[in-house]
Design brief:
alpha+beta; Nuclear Transport Factor 2, Chain: A; Immunoglobulin-like; 22 strands; 42% strand
């Protein structure tokens, strides 16, 4: 009887020891995975890649600064994290108190970067498992400026630009790219890689320029004006028409022989000036042919002369319509 009791007790003891050992293993596994300091960091990075801004903000325990929040959710956020790859969450390093620094190495837009996330122990669950959370912080911001535009695209999303500038709250790590792709005005893309909240970000300055469509539209209107002016001057047989070009002569010109033609059209250059767009002074050449008679000798001869001319215009772009108004002085 005693041997049976001993065997039974030994069996129970072995089972208890195995259970304790299993529990210890489970505690260690859980503590090194879902209850580890790295876990909130992994969940945060996943939320960024999924475009879940509300979840990411809650995990990061971050305040949103007084800035535009267009980049904090959905497609804009997902785009910011779309080039995030080769993520390696490293071993936590102890900091003051109950805090740990979790190092993360990754590539962003092909560039190798490093970020440390600071977490702290905020609770204990089920007696054994630590609960870790990010140390509260404030989101970083990016400034965007643009010349003579009230709207640009930031990470593919249209955003307002009051007076040509705005500030946007952003998550990190992420890539933020600004561009302007309008019908008449455009700006080459410019981007920034944000890897921490502590480093000041250089502003994204968009250098706006006129598009080929705008240049062609203005060039066409300038050509139309000059061709019309030359045709009217010919029809009216005027040496000094209401045009940028004219001819002065002391000879008598035979009526019906005056003919004007544009031999060199101005090259259009559109530039920003004082918050608006202006066309640089337009320079070209016009040719006059005619038959004239010398008043002293009475000899008639053919006249063929080319004149340089220059004039300015007023450019207006409204509702998708381009208006070019010549400014002539006489």
């Amino acid at each position: 009887m005693s041997q049976a009791i001993v065997k039974t007790a030994a069996g129970w003891l072995l089972g208890l020891m195995l259970a304790v050992a299993g529990a210890i293993v489970c505690i260690n596994v859980v503590s090194s995975s879902v209850a580890s300091p790295q876990q909130p960091v992994k969940e945060y990075l996943q939320a960024l890649q999924s475009g879940k801004g509300e979840e990411a903000l809650g995990l990061l325990r971050a305040k949103v600064p007084p800035a535009n929040a267009a980049m904090l959710d959905g497609t804009a956020l997902q785009t910011a994290a779309s080039t995030l790859a080769d993520i390696k969450v490293g071993t936590p390093q102890s900091r003051d108190g109950n805090r740990m620094a979790v190092p993360v190495d990754y590539t962003l837009d092909g560039k190798r970067l490093h970020t440390e996330f600071l977490v702290e122990r905020v609770d204990t669950q089920w007696l054994f498992f630590a609960k870790w959370a990010f140390v509260p912080t404030t989101l970083p911001t990016i400034d965007v400026t643009v010349v003579n535009a009230s709207e640009v695209a930031l990470n593919g999303m249209p955003v307002n630009m009051p007076n040509g500038r705005n500030t946007f709250a952003v998550f990190y790590p992420g890539k933020y790219e600004a561009s302007l792709n309008g019908t008449y005005f455009e700006a080459p893309p410019t981007s920034a890689l944000v890897s921490t909240r502590d480093t000041a970000q250089a502003p994204l300055n968009l250098q706006t320029r006129s598009t080929k469509a705008m240049n062609d539209a203005v060039q066409g209107k300038v050509k139309e004006f000059l061709d019309t002016c030359a045709a009217q001057a010919t029809a009216q047989q005027r040496l000094q028409p209401d045009c940028p070009f004219y001819h002065v002569s002391n000879a008598r010109v035979v009526d019906g022989t005056i003919k004007w033609a544009i031999t060199e059209y101005p090259k259009v250059t559109i530039e920003p000036f004082s918050g608006r767009w202006v066309v640089a002074p337009l320079n070209g050449k016009a040719k006059l042919t005619a038959r004239e008679i010398d008043l002293f000798t009475g000899v008639a001869h053919d006249l063929s002369v080319e004149h340089d001319f220059s004039f300015t215009t007023q450019l207006d772009v409204s509702g998708g319509k381009v208006t070019v108004t010549p400014m002539l002085t006489f």
